[in-house]
Amino acid sequence: VLKANGGVMPEDDAEASGWQERVTPGRFDGRTIVVTGAASGIGRATASRIVREGGRVVAVDISAERLEEFAASAPEGQVVAVAADVTKQDDIDRVVAAAGGRIDGLANVAGVNDDFSPLAETSDAIWDRVIGINLTGVFKLTRAVLPGMVEAGRGSVVNVASEAGIRGNASGNAYTVSKHGVVGLTRSAAFMYGPQGIRVNAVAPGGVATGIPFPPHVSEAGQARLTPFQQQIPTIATAEQLAASITFLLSDDGVNINGAVLPSDGGWSVQ
Ligand code: NAD
């Protein structure tokens, strides 16, 4: 169980809800899906669900060790692990090559938030890192897979934004800007590529029990800003609950949905 530094983290919201994952066997049969951030948290849960629903996953993460561990747990041939940094063009090219043919779907899940600074306290280094991974990485990988999807006349992209992509909160300036950028990228790409059979949607998580909203190492000043924020989060979802939202949009179940930004946050965004 994750423990916030002075903040409160409801310990077993997900368990208390009695929710159970219901996989749809065969939903991704014959599909190759690229999932970033696949070594942990939401990305790993998404990749795992796609595999259990028959898909072949190109699993991408900067953390080679944790990625290999995930790939080793999957049935033979269903996961191609590519240790890659989504901010580097050479790495992106390796990801596309590793797919070895058509890419039917892309889930841009990789992201960081290790700094909760307001604008005046945001260093250039933090800005470049957070915007680089959370926004430029999504741009570069999506740009790399779109030509193949256009050629095929079909494809589905799901970008993981955030509650902080919908409105301002205490997530830090660079993070909030990066996630608003992801929402803009989603809508623009959906508009431009929808007529060519490609759907581009976003999921905006609220609190998820992966560590991001409850970082273990925060300065006293940082925690003072975080505590009221943490106390507002109505529910803490599991990574598997987010994977349910992401795979819904990614799969043919989302057939009529393009350009949507789906809050998956227990209703936080309407409070
Ligand atoms: P996580 O830290 O468990 O997973 C993020 C993964 O991204 C890690 O495995 C990490 O190694 C990988 N990654 C980081 N930099 C990378 C890079 N340059 N190239 C490739 N991979 C890289 O966190 P999570 O909670 O599962 O977060 C997944 C996504 O969900 C992120 O985009 C995050 O912003 C978003 N999100 C999370 C929450 C939450 O409460 N956890 C809320 C809103 C949005």
TrEMBL record:
| Portion of the parent chain present | 67 to 337 of 337
Q: Which parts pass through the membrane?
A: none
Q: Which UniProt keywords apply?
A: Oxidoreductase
Quote the protein name from its UniProt record.
SDR family oxidoreductase
Q: Which family does it belong to?
A: Belongs to the short-chain dehydrogenases/reductases (SDR) family.
